[in-house]
Amino acid sequence: MLDWAGYEDTTMFISFHHAYPQVTVSVAFGESDADIFGKMKAGADACVFHPYTGWQHFYVRDSLVSVLDTTRLARWSTRSSMRS
């Protein structure tokens, strides 16, 4: 996961870790829009990242993102249960 600096608060991930204790999540941080975009352009191994929406078109233009196929996620409809 590639996220903004300042999101280091691991309490945000507690419910995920309780639900999926076998999963290890690696987290890296970016300092700015340009930093996160640069890391993605350089090949950051991030399955999930947190871009600023104002930069979204750059990620699309450079084929750094793809549409998330939620039909392949068995529990997508229960995602609100993860917010505890």
3D structure, described in words:
With 84 residues, this protein is of the alpha+beta class. It has one domain (2-82). The protein is built from three helices and two strands, in the order βαβαα. The protein has helices at 14-19, 33-41, 56-61, and strands at residues 2-4, 28-30. It has a two-stranded parallel sheet. The two termini are 20 Å apart. The model has no long low-confidence stretch (mean pLDDT 86).
Q: What is the mean pLDDT? A: 86
Approximate helicity band? 25-40%
Estimate what percentage of residues fall within beta strands.
5-15%
Category from helices, strands and their pairing: alpha+beta
Number of distinct beta strands: 2
Query: What distance separates the N and C termini?
Result: 20 Å
Strand order across the largest sheet: 1-2
Spatial extent as radius of gyration: 14 Å
H/E topology pattern: EHEHH
Low-confidence runs: none
What's the number of domains?
Answer: 1
Instruction: Characterize the main sheet.
Output: 2 strands, parallel
